[in-house]
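Quick note —
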Amino acid sequence: AGPSRADSLIAQGRLAAAEEALYAASDAKPRDPAARGALAAYLASRGRFPVALVLFDEAQRFGAAASRVNLARAAIRPYTRAAAAGPEVTLPWRASPAPCRRAPARRRPA
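Predicted structure written out below.
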């Protein structure tokens, strides 16, 4: 089997469309462990750890191999702890925890 539709969209940089495809697959087959697991893995890669952990749990409940789910949980565990520590912790894929500041507006000379 070739890459999934979501994989192809991710390769094209179309992340919003990939996420929609993963949610649609999960909605179409709500008890499919592969659909839940794929969505969980994608959301974890985007830093949405709490939702990913719930989806990994559901995937296991719907029949995914516990060993695979445990590996996935173990892979994101360090990042979930770092994210829970607060905004002062920089995660590897985030450029800076500091908020963006807008430059002051310039007034046009009269």
